[in-house]
Amino acid sequence: MSRSLLILLVFLFVAPVAIAQSIGRIEGRIVSERNEPLLGISVALQGTTVGTTTDEEGKYVIKSVAPGNYTLVANGIGYTTVKREVSVKGGSTITEYFLLPSTATELNEVVITASKSGEFVQPIGSTATKMEAPLKSVPQSVQIISRRAMDQMQVIRLDDAMRNVSGVTMETGFGGRTDIFQIRGFRTSTESIFKNGFRNSVRTFRETANIQQLEVMKGPASVLYGVSDPGGMVNITTKKPTAFTFHDIQLTANSFGQYRPAIDFGGALNEEKTLKYRLNAVYEDGDTYRDFVSTKRFFVAPAFTYDFSDRTSLTVEAEYLDHDQASDRGIVAFNGVIADVPTNRSIGEPGNVGIHQNRLVQYNLQHRFNNMFSLRHASNFTYSSEQRTVVEFAGIPKKDDSNSKVIRRLQDQYNFERNFATQNELYATFKTGAAFEHKTVVGVEVARSMFDIWYNRGNYDTLNVYNPKYNSKLKQVKLNFGDDYRDNTQLYGVYVQDFLSISQKLKVLLGARYDIWDLEKVNQKLDKATNTFSEVITTQRNTALNPRAGLLYEVAGPVSVYGNWSKGFQPEVGRTKDGEAFEPVTSDLYEAGIKSGLLNDKINLKAAYFNITRRNVEVTDPSDNAYSMQIGKVRSEGFEADVTGEIATGLNVIATYSYTDARIVKDTKATNIGKRFRGVSEHSGSLWTTYEIQDGPMKGLGIGGGFTSFGDRPVDAADSFRLPGYTRYDGTVYYDNQKYHAAINVRNLTNVKYYDGSQSATAIMPGAPLSVQGTIGVRF
After folding, report:
1. Taking the CA of residue 425 as centre, how many other CA atoms within 13 Å lie in the half-sphere pointing to its CB?
2. CA distances (Å), origin 666, targets 432, 673, 713
């Protein structure tokens, strides 16, 4: 699979360079004076029949335009018509943004009762630059999974969508109860998943019902976001309030016995349409493919936007999530051989309990001073808690020659986390001279967080994984003190960035951020002699300056080449043998690539070479194994390619391939040097394609499918053995018209046995077997 897919991708990149392009393309976005996206605005070339309308994100694409000079006209009911002169060249794409002022004329209410989920491919994103920009002009690798693509895949969990992002390997973490991935060879932590530009640190699966799109930016994101994993970040953009009225009710169910009713409502609350709302809510209940792991979830997410004037708007969002699901670390391997047990086999108990709560409140205030300056002030507060009472793996008996038994423990745990962050950003759009166009942002971020955890443990029993005997309810065992600590952190960041366009062909991206990170760690220490606790408080400060420089040049028509360099950092908590606090772990990204178009930019192609080096990695101190030192270095380099777009009318595709060589290059243990990273596939690829009938009585009927494929992956840091590679095939049939929508998805069509990931040789998560998931919904 890997070789065939790579040959196909190489051919698709060479083709647009070898074939002369004879037509052009116009794309962009239209917003109101209040900076809200406008749906259904007509965009056309005056004097021709060529045109289109905007989607619910305000985005539009006119795909086939003959070279020449035109007048581009944007108009809609209740808005002033705006015209703009454009010059289209063969093989090129023009990006035009419009701001449409509202008219003062009294109009009858226009009610839009149906809303599809926008375009399958979204060409514009904001994560990489903190301002909207066409991805083709940004000198960095960014991939977007749109809402429409997510709906066709019937995405319930984030990893259902992330399977179609190049360089991403599936992972499992925190006992299989939260979203963890490997991006470009590096494991993402809770520090690298964001929501609307704010860090979203939680220990349960994030709800997907109110996601508008996912943006994955490859490489360290510290230049704009501070603390960042080296491989990349995931930014979730949530659904926003709308001025048009719509209601969508749907029910999803699968063959594991799980069902999910959901609603998505939006509209204006007053005649002036200055107060708008959006409401998403989900209830989920049922079993999973794993024994003793059922799920019950309630989620509600209201959002409101109020327009104080044509220049000022405030959006307030909230999320309330209760999720009950026991943790599950999967199965074990004995002496490098994964236990050959059914996919549903559990090491836990029927009485295992996991109770999670997530709360979020976020507001975003925007004010446009004039055509040059605008201001954004936003804040985010999250609260999450987790209560676990679980029987789980604790070890393998040393004298067991049968390779069949595991020692289990009972753990009683409670943790909670509070995070607050505020961002203040000033944007400026201006020109210097005739050829230099600047889009500049200057920002300040202040964040505070607190994480508190305690747990007690006790020996439970020994279990034969091939012939398990479970208890109807958890046995009472003596619990011993495990740990109790609280981390209080503060982050102060100042950043600046300039996105410079020179004569429309050359793009330069320059930026830097300075961070101060402070930690106060409060440990509760138990004196076993007196059975009393005492507090031990330690503090640590890390500072970091992280720059970024990128360059993109339009070589010919739709073909651009780019390169970028950026630095990132992550605080490392701890001290050396000499008592010195650890320095931050730093990373450097070097990336070079090509962005191109095929069939007049209907298909977007990207390829990139990357090299990421991570320094100051904690390794064992050879003079005393009880301590660590920061001389470790690891490197991940490779190649990625993506194809996304509409290869024919109604036929959409997302195809990816990645080669990742991630290895240890410096360590105090010579035997570790050269070892591959745990959980990383050298070769991986995916394909998702759908065809939808565009007219006639069967209009809206679609069929599609694809696969995800991963090579073998080291199970542990010593690379003692590997998870086998696999290819999983999925399929879908769906129907979507103005009122009704329905879909049936079949996952793992060939019922292949595979493993999603591993935390260690004793925590290996089997993948889901063949399953069917269906959705039916109505709009009104």
Report:
1. 24
2. 47, 6, 21
Q: What angle do CA 759, 641, 199 make, to 5 degrees?
A: 50
CA nearest 192: which of 238, 148, 158, 226?
226
Helices and strands in the chain, H and E counts: 4, 45
Q: How far is CA 447 from the centre of its chain?
A: 21
For residue 764 the two structure tokens come to 């290996």
- Spatial separation of the C-alpha atoms in residues 351 and 259, rounded to whole Å: 22
pLDDT at 529 (0 to 100): 82
Q: Pairing relation of β-strands 312-324 and 333-334? A: unpaired
* Statement: residue 97 has pLDDT above 90: no
The pLDDT tens digits for 264-296 are 999 999 988 889 999 999 999 999 999 999 999
Pick the CATH number of 237-779 from 2.40.170.20, 3.40.980.10, 3.50.50.60, 1.10.3210.10: 2.40.170.20
pLDDT (0 to 100) of residue 19: 40
The confidence band for 434, taking pLDDT boundaries of 50, 70 and 90, is confident
Query: What's the CA gap between 104 and 109, in Å, rounded?
Result: 14
Q: Which residue has the tokens 């650890």?
A: 582
Provide mean pLDDT across the span 187-198.
Answer: 89
pLDDT for residue 371: 82
Q: CB of 290 within 8 A of CB of 314?
A: no
State pLDDT tens for residues 152-191: 999 999 999 999 999 998 887 666 778 888 999 998 877 8
CB 179 within 8 A of CB 158: yes
**Bridge partners for 208 per DSSP:** none
**Cα–Cα distance, 621 to 575 (Å, whole number):** 11
Can you give the pLDDT at residue 654? 94
Q: What is the C-alpha separation between 332 and 341, in angstroms, rounded?
A: 10
Neighbours of 437 (CB within 10 A): 17
* Nearest C-alpha neighbor of 387 from the set 324, 316, 331: 324
Quick one: which of 25, 237, 257, 207 has its CA closest to 134? 25
CATH number attached to the domain at 1-104:
2.60.40.1120
pLDDT of residue 107: 34
Distance of alpha carbon 609 from the chain centroid: 21
3-state helix, strand, coil in the chain (%, to 5): 5, 60, 35
* Cα dihedral: 678, 680, 682, 686 (round 10): 160
Structure tokens that stand for 35 in this block: 């900076």
Instruction: Give CA–CA dist 666/616, Å, rounded.
Output: 10
The C-alpha atoms of residue 765 and residue 758 are separated, in whole angstroms, by 6
**Fold match flag (1-104 vs 237-779):** no
In this prediction, residue 314 carries a pLDDT of 95
Task: Show me where the domains of the chain are located.
Answer: 1-104, 237-779
* Token digits of residue 123: 């060409």
**Nearest residue to 747 (alpha-carbon basis) of 713, 722, 774:** 774
Tell me, rounded to whole angstroms, the distance of Cα 498 from its chain centroid. 25
pLDDT digits (tens, 9 = 90+) for 723-758: 999 999 999 999 998 789 999 999 999 999 999 988
Residues near 761 by Cβ (< 8 Å), separated by ≥ 6?
332, 333, 336, 715, 716, 720, 721
pLDDT > 70 in the chain, percent: 93
Distances (CA, A) of 508 to 130, 374, 419, 437, 504: 15, 22, 34, 10, 11
Using one digit for the tens of pLDDT, what is the confidence trace for 639-693? 999 999 888 888 999 999 999 999 999 998 888 899 999 899 999 999 999 999 9
DSSP 420-431: EEEEEEEEEEEE
Question: Kindly report the CA angle at 336 between 335 and 341, in degrees rounded to 5?
Answer: 95
Number of Cβ within 10 Å of residue 751's Cβ equals 13
* Residue of 460, 462, 457 lying closest to 473 (CA atoms): 460
Count of CB atoms situated within 10 Å of the CB of 200: 25
